[in-house]
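Hi all, posting the design record for the shared folder.

TITLE: backbone redesign
STEP: 1 of 1
STRUCTURE INPUT:
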């Protein structure tokens, strides 16, 4: 406020005002009823200020001037349809629904996230899988639903001006789970054929929350060389596994695959995939364990001592032993022991062996499960 001009007069007393006449040098023209503009002028009766202090008068004048300014200002435009004062404004409708699994009994999914990107709004589902958006203006919208471990889904929804839309239904496909994925190598020495075997082994626990029938494919894949082999469930291992001979590898060599990333994958009926994190060959054990006795088809007692040489290798390891009974042309497991200490050099079967022909093998196993096997040591129990 500028240019306040005062006309004052005293009646001989220090606190007496004879009158105040205030004009605003900035001409504010409020609109009259007939649409004309008028100059703002404020007159205050003399008796109003009798006994008032100068500070009180100044505060009153400031408030009065501000009141004139706001009274004369025009309304802001209301062109935004979401503005409550817009002529076509609509308060909106509730948009609600449920998120469930994709197969019967359609279990509700709690803590799923439902997004309305156009309005930048997100809600979560409750314990019964329900969600709700309030005050959604009429229009066409894209709704997105997602939950960790499930394939995301989207729907287009039209919200009319007259009625609330029907409840929205999302059915999410659970992704296969790939857990405890592991990649190991095996080296097998043998008398015949004379060439050693090298094997790449992949194992994993693979399952699908939608049921075992929904899991339709499991396989091992190399980022460089593509699909390597199919994994099948093996009850003895209680896992899905594949043993790939070195000769069946795309490189024909385990050594050539060192440093390359592998993944174990699972796929369901709808094509949803899950893969393990990257897996690498950690070690190929070329060292061959050496057994000392029994061997050469010697005759032994029913509980013979099995002896071998220590391994001069630069990594921590344990030993495993397997005794195989040859009966009717079949090789049948007779006894085994694993996790034997690194410095051990002998072990004795805990149960007597029946009479017959046998052979035994010795395994060296590193901390990651990579293995190397000795040649067979044959013996017989009378």
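Okay, here is what came back for every position:
SEQUENCE:
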């Amino acid at each position: 406020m500028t240019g306040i001009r005062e006309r004052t007069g005293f009646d001989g007393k220090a606190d007496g005002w004879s009158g105040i006449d205030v004009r605003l040098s900035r001409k504010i023209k409020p609109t009259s009823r007939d649409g004309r503009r008028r100059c703002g002028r404020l007159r205050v009766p003399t008796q109003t200020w009798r006994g008032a202090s100068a500070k009180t008068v100044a505060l009153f004048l400031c408030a009065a001037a501000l009141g004139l300014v706001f009274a004369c200002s025009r309304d802001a435009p209301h062109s935004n349809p979401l503005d409550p004062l817009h002529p076509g404004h609509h308060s909106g409708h509730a948009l609600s629904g449920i998120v469930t699994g994709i197969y019967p009994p359609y279990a509700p999914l709690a803590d799923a996230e439902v997004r309305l990107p156009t309005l930048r709004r997100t809600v979560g589902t409750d314990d019964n899988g329900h969600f709700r958006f309030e005050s959604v203006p009429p229009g066409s919208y894209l709704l997105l639903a997602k939950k960790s471990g499930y394939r995301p889904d989207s729907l287009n929804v039209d919200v009319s001006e007259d009625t609330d839309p029907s409840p929205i239904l999302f059915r999410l496909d659970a992704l296969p789970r790939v857990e405890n994925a592991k990649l190991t190598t095996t080296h097998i020495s043998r008398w015949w054929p004379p060439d050693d075997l090298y094997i790449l082994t992949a194992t994993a626990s693979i399952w699908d929350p939608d049921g075992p029938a929904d899991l339709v494919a499991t396989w091992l894949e190399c980022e460089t060389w593509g699909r390597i082999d199919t994994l099948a469930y093996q009850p003895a291992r209680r896992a899905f596994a594949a043993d790939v001979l070195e000769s069946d590898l795309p490189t024909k060599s385990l050594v050539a695959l060192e440093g390359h990333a592998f993944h174990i994958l699972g796929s369901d009926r709808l094509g949803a995939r899950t893969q393990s994190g990257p897996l690498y060959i950690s070690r190929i054990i070329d060292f061959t364990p050496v057994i000392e006795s029994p061997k050469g088809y010697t005759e032994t007692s029913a509980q013979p001592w099995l002896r071998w040489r220590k391994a001069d290798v630069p990594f921590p390891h344990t030993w495993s032993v397997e005794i195989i009974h040859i009966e009717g042309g079949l090789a049948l497991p007779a006894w085994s022991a694993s996790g034997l200490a690194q410095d051990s050099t002998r072990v004795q079967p805990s149960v007597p062996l029946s009479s017959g022909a046998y052979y035994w093998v010795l395994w060296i196993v590193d901390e990651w499960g990579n293995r190397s096997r000795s040649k067979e040591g044959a013996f017989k129990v009378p």
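COMMENT: DSSP finds one helix and 27 strands in the chain.
Let me know if anyone wants the other runs.
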